[in-house]
Amino acid sequence: MGTVRFGNDHFAAITGYRDYAQGNLTICHVYYVKGLGHNMFSVGQLCDEDLEVAFRLNTCYVQNLEEDDFLTGSRDSNLYIISISEMAASSSGKSKKASLPPKLVPSTESKLELLHMDLCGPMRVASINGRKYILVIVDDYSRYTWVYFLRTKDEAPDMIIDFVTQVQRNLKAPILTIRTDNGTEFKNEKLQTFYAKLGIVHKISIARTPQQNGVVE
Question: Is 148 helix (H, G, I), strand (E, B) or coil?
Fold first, then answer.
């Protein structure tokens, strides 16, 4: 199942994996490495899941994109220690579950039946003409993807309205459902009025559920 490489250039074999549950906290796809004396987190894997990892002098933080603390730890000599049992005990019933594999098979049967939308940014470096945000739109059925570059988040509603109007006319098919995250650029009165006029259902995806938002991510 592959190997793990350590800082001293030694390698160890991965012999299996399973979900690790402690109270209300579940971490999926935890590797088992025979002979390893500590349970270790891979910073690279955390970053691949759109989590941010920050190390301070005596503390480390793992946060989601909404800056909610997913994991926290303290420094012990040269190791940063995260106590899963303590975090589970203090979670107050809040369930934290790592993401499932992204959905590979479309759940729709025709084009434009369901569109996934997401907005990325601000990018650290703007484009030549000053655009720092990226609006991504994916058709669930065909996986056809449209990408638009914006200067500010405020441009998103007007861009979405223009896109919906144009794509329905060009493809001669109605948009039935639009799925986005909980961002304010997608949840506003202007868009809700527009959707209601056309009979489009706007659904909000649950955070960190790739079977809902994995397509556009």
Answer: strand
Find the radius of gyration of the CA atoms of the chain: 21
- Any long-range contacts for 54-63 (C-beta under 8 Å, 24+ apart)? 55/80
Distance of CA 149 to the CA centre of its chain: 20
Q: Write out pLDDT tens, residues 63-113.
A: 776 666 677 888 887 788 887 766 666 556 444 444 444 555 566 788 999
Give the type of residue at 1.
M
Q: Distance of CA 192 to CAs 132, 162, 210, Å?
A: 25, 14, 25
Omega within 30 of 0 (cis) for the link into 122: yes
Q: Using alpha carbons only, what angle is made at residue 171 by residues 144 and 120, rounded to the nearest 5 degrees?
A: 40
Q: Is the pLDDT of residue 20 over 80?
A: no
- How confident is the model over 134-154, as pLDDT tens digits? 999 999 888 899 999 999 999
Q: Is the pTM of this model over 0.70?
A: no
Taking the C-alpha atoms of residue 87 and residue 81, their distance in angstroms, rounded to an integer, is 12
Q: Is 152 helix (H, G, I), strand (E, B) or coil?
A: coil
Amino acid letter at 3? T
Q: How far apart are CA 110 and CA 141, in angstroms?
A: 6
Write down all domains in the chain, each with its CATH number in brackets: 3-97 (no CATH), 114-213 (3.30.420.10)
pLDDT at 184: 87
